[in-house]
Amino acid sequence: MTQEQVRRSLLVLGLLAALGIVLSNGWAPANANEDEPGHKNAKHAEEGHDHKETAEDHSCCPGHDKQSNHDDHGPRGDREIHDDHGDHDDHGHGDEHGDHGDDHGHEGGCGGHDDHDAESAVHLNEGERHELGIKVATAGSGTITTRINLPGEIVLNADRLAHIVPRAPGIVRQVLKSVGDAVTTGEVMAWLESSELGEAKVDYLAKWTELGCCTLDLARAQAIHDNTVRLLEVLKSSPSLETLRDMNGSEMGENRSVLVSAYAEFVFAEAAYLREKPLFEKRVASERDYQATQAEYQKADAAYAATRDSVAFKIQRDLLEAKQAQRVREIELEGARRRLYVLGLTSEEVAALELLGQTQTGTNKETHKCNDPNCKGCGQNVSAGQGDTLAALRETEEKLAWYPLRAPFDGTVIDKHLTLGEKHGDDSNAFTIADLSSVWVDIRVYQTDIASVKEGQWVRVAAGDGMVEARGVISYVSPIVDEKTRTALARVVLPNVDGSWRPGLFVTAEVSAGEDSARILIPKTAVQRLDEESIVFLDTDDGLRATPVRLGRGQDTHVEVLSGISTGQRYVTRGAFELKAKLVTSDLDPHAGHGH
Questions:
Q1: What's the CA gap between 47 and 39, in Å, rounded?
Q2: With the C-alpha atoms ordered 321, 326, 327, 328, is the resulting torsion angle positive or negative?
Q3: DSSP 522
Q4: In a 10 Å sphere around its CB, with 0-12 CB exposed, 13-18 middle and 19+ buried, how is residue 145 labelled?
Q5: pTM of the complete model beyond 0.70
Q6: Nearest 5°: phi and psi at 104?
Q7: pLDDT tens, position by position, for the chain (596 residues)?
Q8: Residues 6+ apart with CB under 8 A from 67
Q9: Which string of b and e fits 470-479 if b means at least 16 CB within 10 Å?
Q10: How many angstroms separate the CA atoms of 319 and 325, rounded?
Q11: Alpha-carbon distance 313 to 530, whole Å?
């Protein structure tokens, strides 16, 4: 039964009670006792006494809103708590309208407008307060956070998303992963066979074999240079021809014969000149013979000097050319190796390819002696006992044109466009991998809220019932507004270790847009609704009084009070609902709310 229905019922009961009083006393005719005036006054006095007793019997009935044709005392239906039971004697009973006096006396006993404040207060002793769990606080200022609710959507983290595209056109030979499978960094997802990759491997093997680990060109050029330089140093001391013969074992190429021949001619010409000169001085030899030997000596000396310079330049040039050629071959080999990396091979697979090249060229390597001091793998041939290595080499040779599709990072396969045996181009997506350990929340910011949403603000993300809420920070706000939706994009990165935030979910993002001070800020638990008004129970000397308040901005747990409470006033923070229940039931129980 509603409060209004209760009031109406009580009004009807009050009218019936008044009618009963009138009927019990009876109605006397206007001229019944005209001949006995004294008797008339006595009878009226007796009737007044009866009315007083009847009024006292009904003075404590809660909610008796008695109304007659002459009742102008207060609005109908006001809640009243009766504290005074002796007001009935103030009304006169000696006039001819005694029945109306009875009505007025009852209305005064149940409380009129003067008792309106008393009906809004609940009186409880300390024990009753403790039993109801009443908690009281002092009203004061606080900080209220402005929050904006905006729509959003969970999307994939584009920074952790990869489209796996074949490096070269080829035929799909093996498919190892499907949608939903987890992959790790470097794990092979599929194998393709490509003629382009086969050609790249063959080219690499050719360049690797050409360069090899025992290239003789540079080593021989270096040896010829070093031995020839040593010979030139020896020739500066004018050695004997027998001494030069002892250096025949050193590799110098044609430089030895050229230098030794020039040196021998010089020695012979010098000896003839030195033999002819003293004879000429003694007038034994003719001047003509002397001049001829002198000319031969000078000619041999010049030819010898020119030969030394020529050989010295030649060995320097040959060594430089050999080094340059070696460097060019190394660059070409490195280019071929990089091409293999681009096509998807790893360093281990390239090493296996080099090992395959060693087994194919091992016979040729045994026919010469390696003199390269930088060679680290010379003579390392695969023996027949290395069964595992030979099996791996045979597999490498059989799959020379195969190349793998590998996962670039840990993630989950969310899409696949690959079928066994089909020809796949290098411009089509084979797999899509996403790292779902983190996701993006794309928030649509309306035009009216753009100025309030900034990077660094905290956001609470909720997806509805059954989903745990999450908190994050805005990491990006779009500098442009979408021309179709007229909204700007704000983004939050959320951790998603357990995978509960699935891309495609619609969410609500509560953005903490700023803080402002409030003169009075109270918990929401302190506010109750009564008679379509918001009320707060103040702790006063007259009890816990229900006071209407006007509310302002709200947040999760607190609300701003614009009027109705002053700073420093004591109010109920816990137990307000129980007090409201006691206040409502006070319409039915005349002693409710008084702590009796």
A1: 12
A2: positive
A3: E
A4: middle
A5: no
A6: -65, -40
A7: 455 655 666 665 666 555 554 444 444 443 434 344 343 343 333 344 343 333 334 333 333 333 333 333 333 333 333 333 333 344 333 343 334 334 433 333 333 334 444 457 888 888 888 888 899 999 999 988 888 899 999 999 999 999 999 888 889 999 999 999 999 998 999 999 888 888 888 888 888 887 765 567 788 888 889 988 988 888 888 888 777 777 777 788 888 888 888 988 988 998 898 988 888 888 888 888 889 999 999 999 999 999 999 999 999 999 999 899 888 888 999 999 998 888 878 888 888 888 877 776 554 444 445 555 555 444 444 444 444 455 555 555 667 788 888 899 999 999 999 889 888 887 889 999 999 999 999 999 999 999 999 999 999 999 987 788 999 999 999 999 999 999 999 999 999 998 899 999 999 999 988 778 889 999 999 999 988 899 999 999 888 999 999 999 887 789 999 999 999 999 999 999 998 888 888 754 444 444 43
A8: 11, 14, 15, 76
A9: bebebeebee
A10: 10
A11: 113
State whether residue 175 is helix, strand or coil: strand
CA distance linking residue 222 with residue 220, whole number of Å:
5
CA dihedral 324, 328, 331, 332 (to 10 degrees): -170
Q: Could you tell me where the beta strands, DSSP code E, fall in 42-141?
A: 121-122, 135-138
3-state DSSP assignment of residue 493: strand
Query: In the block, which residue shows the tokens 């490498």?
Result: 396
Q: Hey, what are 188's tokens?
A: 């092979």
Q: Which amino acid is at 583?
A: L
The CA-based dihedral angle spanning residues 492, 498, 503, 505, taken in that order and rounded to the nearest 10 degrees: -90
Tokens of 580: 């409201």
- The rounded radius of gyration (Å) of the Cα atoms in the chain is 58
Work out the angle between the directed axes of helices 195-211 and 347-365 (0-180°, nearest 10): 50
Helix, strand, or coil (residue 334): helix
Q: Which amino acid is at 589?
A: D
Cα dist. 493→161, 481, 532 in Å?
14, 21, 44
Geometric angle at alpha carbon 547, from 541 and 553, rounded to 5°: 130
What is residue 188's DSSP assignment? E
